[in-house]
Amino acid sequence: MTQSVYPFGLAPAPGRRRRIAVIAGDGIGPEVVAQALRAVEPLGIALDIQHFPWSADHYLKTQETLPKGALTELREHFDAIFFGALGDPRVPDGVVAKDVLLGLRFGLDLYINLRPVQLLDEKLCPLKGKQRRDVNFWVLRENTEGPYVQMGGSFKRDTPDEVAISEDLNTRRGVERIIRAAYTLANVPHDSSHKSPRVCMVDKANALPHAHGLWQRTFRQVAAEHPNVSSSHLFVDVAAMEFVRTPERFDVVVTSNLFGDILTDLGAAICGGLGVAASGNIHPGRCSLFEPVHGSAPDIAGKGLANPLAAYLTLAMLYDHLGEHDAGDRLRRAVEEVVLAGLVTRDLGGQLSTSECGDAVLRALTGATRN
Ligand code: NAD
Ligand code: IPM
Ligand code: MN
How far does residue 282's CA lie from ligand 3's centre (Å)? Predict the structure, then answer.
C-alpha cells in the first residue's frame, strides 16, 4: 500500500506546473477535501489549483449542473480533478451527481474506475484472523457502460401498469479495454507473496448470457495473451462471498460498472469502511478524476465526524497519476502512521474530529518529510 503501483499516469511535463481542478461538492465532500488539500504544501510540489462550485447549493441558486464548455476546459487545460462527493437530499432526483459525476466519467471517457482494497491495519478488519497481507488487491470497475448509461425509460408512469426499463449496455470495445487495463496493472511488478500475478474477472454470465457472455469471450481471448498471469473467473454472487471468506485469493479483480460499485463498498467494509476507501476514475495518460468511494454522507455532514483519510488516500492516487510517486507514497505512509497510532475518527474507533485527524496526518507527513 505504501508503494505506488500505477501504470496509467500522465506523460512527464517538465518545467510546467500541473493544473488541478477541485470539485468539493456536497455534504462531507468539502469537509474532507479541505483536509486533504492541507497536504499539498508540505508535499512540496507546486500545483495550480482551481476550485469549481458545482454542487447542490450551486444548482439550487443557478439551475446549473455541469456547464457548457466544462468538459473541453477540463480535458484540455487540466491534468487531474480532485472530487469530494455529490448528493443532497434537497435535490432528490440526483440530477447534479448525474450531470457532474457521471457526466465527467462519460464525457472524459474515464473508463477505468480503480479502487484499491488494501487493509492498513488488521485492527480495522472485521474478518476473523485476516492480516494486512490477506486484504491487498485492486478492483477495476468498468466506468463508462452498463446500466449507468441510463438508456431506457418508463411507460404508464404512476399507474398500476407502469413499465420501467434500464438497459445494460456492454460493448466489445468497452469490455476489452477494461480487461486489458486489468492485465496492465497485474503485470506491474509489485510486492506479493506469490509468484505469478492473478486476475479474476467477475460477471453474471449464467443469468445474463448476452451481455456477460461478451465479457466471458473477451476475457478468454485477452487472458490467452497473458500466459504469465493466473486468470480466473467468478460469478458475482460467489465473488461477494469470497471477498469476505478468502480475500487473499485476489490481486486484480475486473468487473462491470454496477457490480464494481457494489463490490467496492464491500471491499471498503473489509478494510474498515468507507472512511478509508479511495478511487480514481482514469483514462490512461489523460486528465482523470480522483474521488473517495464514499458519498456525501448527509447523516454526518457538518458535524466534524467525517473521516478524511479516504480523501488523503485519493489525493495520493492523484499524485501517482501526475507521475509524483514519491509524494503519493509519502502521503500513504502518513495515513498508515496515523491509523497505526489510532489517531482516527469515530468510524474507525477513534475519538478525533475531521480536522484533528487532518492535523495528525499533517504531523506524520512533516515528520516523514524530515526523515
Ligand atoms: P455514503 O457513502 O454517503 O454514506 C454511507 C454511510 O457511510 C453513512 O452512514 C455515512 O455516514 C458513512 N460514511 C461515508 N463516508 C464517511 C466518512 N468519510 N467518514 C465517516 N463515515 C462515512 O452513501 P449514501 O448514504 O448511500 O449516499 C449519500 C449521498 O451520496 C447520496 O446522494 C448518494 O447518491 C451520494 N453518493 C455520491 C457519491 C459520489 O459523489 N462519488 C458516492 C456514493 C454516494
Ligand atoms: C460511486 C457512487 C456513484 C456510482 C453514484 C453516486 C452514482 O456510488 O462512485 O460509487 O454508483 O458510481
Ligand atoms: Mn458507490
Answer: 16
Query: What's the pLDDT score for residue 369?
Result: 45
Cα–Cα distance for residue pair 37/57, rounded to 1 Å: 21
pLDDT at 168: 98
Q: State in Å: Cα 306 to ligand 3 middle.
A: 17
Q: Is the CB of 99 under 6 A from ligand 2?
A: no
Tens of pLDDT, residues 79-95: 999 999 999 999 989 99
Atom of ligand 2 nearest to the CA of 143: 12
Distance CA 44, CA 366 (A): 11
Q: Which grid coordinates belong to 359? A: 492535523
Q: Is 11 helix (H, G, I), strand (E, B) or coil?
A: coil
Catalytic status, residue 261: yes
Average of per-residue pLDDT across 299-310: 98
Catalytic residue status for 148: yes
pLDDT band for position 371 (cuts 50, 70, 90):
very low
Instruction: Tell me which of 261, 320, 329, 347 is the catalytic residue.
Output: 261
Question: How many helices and strands (H and E) does the chain possess?
Answer: 13, 12
Distance CA 305, CA 327 (A): 27
What is the band of 193 on the pLDDT scale with cuts at 50, 70, 90?
Answer: low
Find out whether 309 and 331 touch, Cβ atoms under 8 Å: no
CB atoms within 10 A of CB 226: 18
Cβ of residue 94 lying under 6 Å from some atom of ligand 1:
yes
Residues 6 or more apart whose Cβ sits within 8 Å of residue 351: none
How far away, in angstroms, is 51 Cα from ligand 1 center? 22
Considering the entire predicted model, what is its pTM? Answer: 0.97
User: Under a CB-based contact definition with an 8 Å cutoff, are residues 299 and 291 in contact?
Assistant: no
> What is the best residue among 83, 141, 145, 261 to mutate for testing ligand 2's pocket, by most ligand atoms within 8 Å of CB?
261
Closest CA to 177 of 210, 211, 143: 143
